[in-house]
TrEMBL record, chain A:
<feature type="region of interest" description="Disordered">
    <location>
        <begin position="487"/>
        <end position="506"/>
    </location>
</feature>
<dbReference type="InterPro" id="IPR045139">
    <property type="entry name" value="Aladin"/>
</dbReference>
<dbReference type="InterPro" id="IPR015943">
    <property type="entry name" value="WD40/YVTN_repeat-like_dom_sf"/>
</dbReference>
<dbReference type="GO" id="GO:0006913">
    <property type="term" value="P:nucleocytoplasmic transport"/>
</dbReference>
<dbReference type="InterPro" id="IPR036322">
    <property type="entry name" value="WD40_repeat_dom_sf"/>
</dbReference>
<dbReference type="Pfam" id="PF25460">
    <property type="entry name" value="Beta-prop_Aladin"/>
</dbReference>
<feature type="compositionally biased region" description="Basic and acidic residues">
    <location>
        <begin position="47"/>
        <end position="57"/>
    </location>
</feature>
<protein>
    <submittedName>
        <fullName>Achalasia, adrenocortical insufficiency, alacrimia</fullName>
    </submittedName>
</protein>
<feature type="domain" description="Aladin seven-bladed propeller">
    <location>
        <begin position="130"/>
        <end position="472"/>
    </location>
</feature>
Automatic annotation (TrEMBL), chain B:
<dbReference type="GO" id="GO:0006999">
    <property type="term" value="P:nuclear pore organization"/>
</dbReference>
<feature type="transmembrane region" description="Helical">
    <location>
        <begin position="264"/>
        <end position="286"/>
    </location>
</feature>
<keyword id="KW-0811">Translocation</keyword>
<comment type="similarity">
    <text>Belongs to the NDC1 family.</text>
</comment>
<feature type="transmembrane region" description="Helical">
    <location>
        <begin position="66"/>
        <end position="86"/>
    </location>
</feature>
<feature type="transmembrane region" description="Helical">
    <location>
        <begin position="207"/>
        <end position="230"/>
    </location>
</feature>
<comment type="function">
    <text>Component of the nuclear pore complex (NPC), which plays a key role in de novo assembly and insertion of NPC in the nuclear envelope. Required for NPC and nuclear envelope assembly, possibly by forming a link between the nuclear envelope membrane and soluble nucleoporins, thereby anchoring the NPC in the membrane.</text>
</comment>
<keyword id="KW-1133">Transmembrane helix</keyword>
<dbReference type="GO" id="GO:0030674">
    <property type="term" value="F:protein-macromolecule adaptor activity"/>
</dbReference>
Length: 506, 657
């Protein structure tokens, strides 16, 4: 088991640039300023992005108060806030309605509140408002305060999408082509983004009220695709959506909401959904599809998560000891799942294999409790709860975003990077800490899905900057796996000799 | 020799019975087993009283064991059996999409549909009779003793409450049968994911209950309105036929005060919900059972079982459901089962021929190229239609254009081929409006029978084939794909000839057109429904989607799993077939109405998946090409395909699509 104590001490003074020769180099080293990758690294500040200061329904307070008739007010309350609003309105205007109606609605309201408080005591997350819920369950650390709301690399090309505080989404490509900005009426409080695999254009966006599928034509030069390019997928009772996951074959999309006990399996083109309901847990907060497509992790707000197998869609229940599952990532072959729990400072591993029929218990693979490193300008404490986990596509580097303590000034959030080794036994080895510029804390990170020379970690910082940290290494495992493909390639290279068989005439 | 020929046939029949009939029987058995449960719930709800809960429970338990309830259950079992039989007889995997309101009307008035409606009316009455007996009280019998006001003697009077419920049952039966046609209730669609039967049933149950309640409320409202206006007709007829008096002391039900009876409306709604639930559950169970994945063996060690193997069943033309199940199985095995993929890539022993792969890929490619031809023919039809209208001389060149394309040599199955088939046989006149794909191997036997029995002498048959009417619409259909082949169209006694280029004919046709265009009702009935032709073209596309998935995953898996290189020989074929199909699909989506999204229907038992199949097919096609290009990458440059196809594939390699 690896702990933070064996890590090399973090360099606090400058930004980490890249890894070379098994060493994380920072901007302090002379002659290393030339960054090797030509990927765009934009910066967004809170001031330039004007977010929606208040939700639409409360814009009423700016206008003068005017008394409508009871009918109008009731209809408005029903439209704005549903049954609760209607009952509230009737109870509040007791002098205008018959007495029995006012008393009756007051009783029903009290009963409903009692029932929902009972429900809420079972599942405390249900008492949160929609925005608070998104902030709570988003993979972005400190979601509500951040200029960046979400980030996603395209799985096949050098292209990424960023969701911003003002509910717009920008798409950046490696070459200096125009950056399209996506805006839609329904696109509010974006919690997650994911590009469709095996597709050049489709981007799924998890919003507060619905699921949007943007079709952004890669060949188009337009910077503002119309909202007609977006498909709106919604299901009653299934909002806010906090997590989405495309199947690796790109045929299905799964969406989850913490208030809905069923997760939706969407056939996006047909716009139809199959709900998969399991009552325990009170909702689904986080989804992660294994890269080989055979399993899907679904975390709930309670101390419980499920692992679905995607052939017949049955699930295994995994009750946890303490908190809910906060983040997870799959190994590239889909055989190993790393998990982090809320309130625990360790990383768990589950190893799946088709022969043994699945694991019986999770094992602890890393200890991330607070460790203090002495530095030139005071001690630096590192460690804490894991906010998110990310494993590079070759399975060689694991990045862990550790939540800091916002009260203490020498305990920031940091990214710890591990080297991983799967044979002969699964093992985590220390690599180093990825540091930002002075004062900037990491908020979110994701590995580039197909970086040629090793791994590339993209980090969103608290100052609104997006930076890329390459890890240069030669992969040991990949060379061995290449040989059958090369053998096949040598077969296909000569088109004249690829007729192995005579044509069957029957 | 005969014996040899029939033997595989019986083998195939046996597997058909094993799969489809057995599944239908199992679904009916489960529906029958569920009956006591739904009946118990119905009894509890019908006798509900808020203030006497203990009496309510004891009443219900005694009622559930009473002989009348047992008898009702037996009757209900009969109803469920008949419903299950109708499900098996009418179900279809390719929906019939009427292209105009006239065609829809024709379907509704078709004799087969009339029989269906009649049976459902009767079953509705039977269920409602059971319901009224179970509710008891004032609903229980048709005749009640009453005292005549003037003489004071006791006679048998008509119990209008009982009659009301019976007629409501008949009404709901008819509306179920009617909506079954309009909403394609018998269309069975396959789910995008596989689930075991019990979780799937559990997941669908709330939706079915909700649908039946909503449908019952709608029907109750409609029936109450109908009874308010026309209720006296059946009432007087029944009372005069059965010699029953009408009790004048009671409030008649076809009045406003009679109908505004809360208890009556409540009982009407819950009996209606019970009625719909019985039927919907049967339909749901049937759908779940039929669409369950079936695993066919890829190859068999015994030659007798060869008919049951995947390649043979895939090539099956007559029973559509087996073909669909085989394609589904192919898509599943290509994604999930390594061992079965290896069997597909295996060579025959002895001989060393890749028979399995050749048969499977050949069948998939055949399906896809058939779709391509269908789309191209439709586009040609639409394009040439525009030219015919503009100038009579260009019509000749238009048809020449078509004749030049070699694709026309295959039988057309587009909506454009309406007139061809109308020349072929008089009894196929009305074929086209129902479904353009009747002659394709994909239409279910039920549909084919439905169309085959069409009365050619129905009053509309002459008019439907008139190109003047057809041409007035948004020009989605061609009136003139093979226009030079048909000559005489009877239309209101007028005999016009289209292939002559005389100005007189054109004038005439213009006059007739403008005359008919003024009649609003005719316009309404004959105007083509937008998107309908597009939906009809892609009606069976679930098969193509599976073929695409199966092919692309098998080809991608062959990159590392195909030891003998059997896939390499067919790779150029597969790639060019996919690219040609993509071009055809792209062109199709440029047509008007083709890319407009259908309106979403909320909460109906009818499945509207077929409305979005064309989008699903486009997405599946692109994903399939991407799957192959991302797997093979630069090796694709070594594959022997034409330059323009390579250009298109390059777009995919660069993720520019």
């Amino acid at each position: 088991m690896c702990s933070l104590g064996v890590f090399p001490a973090p360099v606090t003074a400058a930004q980490t640039l890249f890894e070379r020769n098994n060493e994380l180099l920072s901007a302090l080293h002379p002659g290393e300023h030339s960054q090797a990758c030509d990927l765009p690294s934009p910066q967004f500040t809170r001031d330039t992005l004007k977010g929606h200061s208040r939700p639409e329904s409360s814009s009423r307070s700016v206008f003068l108060d005017q008394r409508d008739t009871l009918w109008m007010r009731s209809a408005g309350a029903w439209r704005d806030a549903g049954l609760y609003g209607l009952l509230d309105e009737i109870t509040n205007s007791a002098e205008e309605v018959p007495r029995f109606l006012a008393v009756g609605s007051a009783c029903v309201l009290a009963l409903l509140r009692w029932a929902s408080s009972f429900h809420g005591s079972l599942f405390p997350h249900l008492t949160l408002s929609s925005d608070e819920m998104v902030a709570e369950f988003s993979q972005m650390l400190d979601w509500s305060d951040s200029a960046l709301r979400s980030f996603a690399w395209h799985p096949h090309t050098d292209k990424f999408a960023v969701a911003l505080l003002d509910d717009s989404i920008k798409i950046y490509k490696s070459n200096s082509s125009p950056t399209p900005t996506l805006k839609h009426r329904c696109q509010r409080s974006v919690c997650a983004l994911q590009w469709k695999p095996l597709c050049g254009s489709a981007l799924a966006v998890a919003c507060q009220s619905c699921l949007l599928i943007w079709h952004v034509d890669p060949a188009s030069l337009s910077t503002r695709p119309s909202s007609g390019c977006a498909q709106v997928l919604s299901h009653p009772g299934h909002s806010p959506i906090t997590s989405i996951a495309w199947s690796p074959t790109g045929s299905l999309l799964v969406s989850a909401s913490p208030v809905d006990t069923s997760m939706m399996v969407w056939d996006v083109a047909a716009e139809s959904a199959v709900p998969l309901q399991r009552v325990g847990g009170g909702g689904v907060t986080y989804l992660s599809w294994s890269p080989d497509g055979s399993r899907l992790l679904a975390a709930t707000p309670s101390a419980l998560f499920r692992v679905w197998e995607t052939r017949m869609w049955t699930c295994e229940r995994w009750p946890c000891l303490k908190g809910s599952c906060q983040s997870a990532c799959w190994s590239p072959d889909g055989g190993c799942l790393l998990l982090s729990m809320q309130g625990e400072r360790v990383i768990y591993a589950l190893t799946f294999s088709d022969l043994t029929g699945g694991p019986k218990a999770a094992s602890v693979v890393a200890d991330l409790s607070e460790t203090t490193f002495p530095g030139p300008d005071g001690d630096l404490t590192v460690g804490g709860e894991v906010c998110s986990l990310s494993w590079d596509p070759r399975g060689e580097r694991l990045a862990v975003l550790l939540k800091g303590d916002s009260q203490a000034d020498n305990h920031p959030s940091v990214i710890a990077v591990f080297k991983t080794r799967s044979s002969p036994v699964f093992e985590l080895l220390p690599c180093g800490f990825v540091m930002g510029e002075a004062g900037a804390e990491p908020r979110f990170m994701q590995f580039h899905p197909h970086f040629q020379h090793g791994a590339l970690l993209t980090v969103c910082w608290s100052d609104g900057r997006i930076s890329h940290v390459p890890f240069y290494f030669s992969s040991a495992g990949l060379l061995g796996g290449d040989s059958p493909q090369q053998a096949l390639a040598s077969n296909t290279t000569n088109p004249s000799s690829n007729k192995l068989y005579t044509e069957q005439i029957s | 020799f005969d014996v040899m020929a029939t033997k595989p046939c019986t083998k195939f029949l046996s597997i058909y019975f094993q799969v489809v009939i057995w599944r239908a029987v199992a679904s009916i058995a489960w529906s029958v087993l569920l009956l006591p449960v739904t009946t118990a719930v119905f009894v509890l709800l019908s006798r509900f009283s808020l203030f006497h809960p203990i009496q309510w429970i004891s009443d219900c338990t005694s009622l559930l064991t009473a002989s009348s309830t047992i008898f009702s259950l037996v009757v209900l079992c009969g109803v469920v059996l008949i419903t299950g039989f109708f499900n098996l007889e009418f179900y279809t995997l390719v929906p019939s999409i009427p292209c105009s309101r006239m065609a829809l009307l024709g379907t509704v008035l078709h004799p087969r549909q009339c029989v269906h409606s009649l049976v459902y009316c009767t079953m509705g009455m039977l269920v409602m009779w059971c319901a009224s007996v179970t509710i008891g009280g004032r609903y229980s019998t048709l005749g009640t003793p009453c005292r005549q006001s003037e003489s004071g003697e006791v006679v048998t009077c008509l119990n209008e409450y009982h009659l009301f419920l019976l007629l409501a049952g008949a009404f709901m039966g008819y509306s179920h049968s009617f909506l079954g046609v309009v909403q394609n209730m018998y269309y069975v669609s396959f789910q995008p994911i596989q689930q075991y039967k019990y979780p799937r049933f559990k997941g669908c149950l709330p939706m079915v209950v909700k649908c039946s309640v909503i449908q019952a409320l709608y029907s109750a409202r409609n029936f109450a309105a109908l009874y308010f206006f026309f209720g006296y007709v059946p009432k007087t007829w029944i009372s005069s036929t059965l010699n029953l008096q009408i009790d004048s002391s009671l409030q008649p039900l076809d009045s406003l005060t009679g109908l505004l009876d809360f208890s009556l409306l409540y009982h009407l709604s819950i009996s209606g919900a019970f009625l719909y639930l019985t039927w919907y559950l049967t339909v749901l169970l049937f759908r779940i059972y039929v669409t369950e994945a079936y695993s066919f063996p890829v190859q068999s060690t015994f030659t007798e079982d060869a008919e049951q193997c995947l390649p043979k069943v895939l090539a099956e033309k007559n029973t559509l459901v087996m073909k669909f199940l085989a394609l589904q199985d192919l898509a599943l095995l290509s994604q999930h089962s390594l061992s079965r993929r290896l069997e597909v890539f295996n060579l025959s022993q002895p001989g060393g021929h890749p028979h399995n792969w050749n048969a499977i890929s050949g069948e998939c490619l055949c399906l896809l190229s058939e779709l391509t031809q269908r789309l191209v023919a439709h586009q040609d039809a639409v394009a040439s239609n525009g030219r015919v209208k503009s100038q009579s001389a260009s019509m000749v060149s238009g048809t020449e254009d078509i004749a030049e394309t070699p694709r026309l040599s295959v039988p057309l199955r587009t909506p454009g081929s309406v007139f061809k088939s109308s020349v072929g046989g008089a009894n196929r006149v009305l074929t086209a409006p129902f479904t353009p794909d009747v002659d394709s191997p994909f239409s279910s036997p039920a549909i084919r029978r439905l169309v085959g029995q069409q009365d050619p002498h129905s009053p509309w048959s002459g008019t439907v084939q008139s190109p003047h009417i057809m041409r007035r619409g948004p020009k989605l259909w061609s009136a003139s794909t093979g226009s030079s082949r048909f000559s005489v169209i009877p239309l209101h006694g007028l005999e016009t000839s289209v292939n002559s280029c005389s100005c007189h004919t054109l004038n005439c046709s213009a006059q007739v057109k403008s005359f008919l265009a003024k009649r609003v009702l005719i316009m309404y009935l004959f105007n083509k429904l937008p998107e309908a032709s597009s939906q009809a073209l892609f009606a069976d596309s679930q098969a193509h989607i599976w073929a695409l998935q199966g092919l692309s995953h098998l080809v991608a898996a062959s990159f590392s799993e195909d030891q003998f290189g059997v896939v390499q020989t067919t790779l150029p074929n597969i790639l060019s077939c996919l690219v040609v199909l993509l071009e055809a699909v792209d062109r199709h989506f440029k047509l008007p109405h083709a890319s407009s999204k259908p309106v979403r229907t909320l909460c109906s038992m009818g499945d509207s998946t077929y409305k979005t199949l064309r989008f699903a097919l486009r997405a599946a096609l692109k994903t399939a090409i991407y799957k192959i290009t991302t797997t093979f990458g630069e090796h694709l440059n070594a594959v022997n395909i034409s330059t323009e196809h390579r250009k298109r594939l390059q777009q995919f390699l660069e993720f520019k699509e």
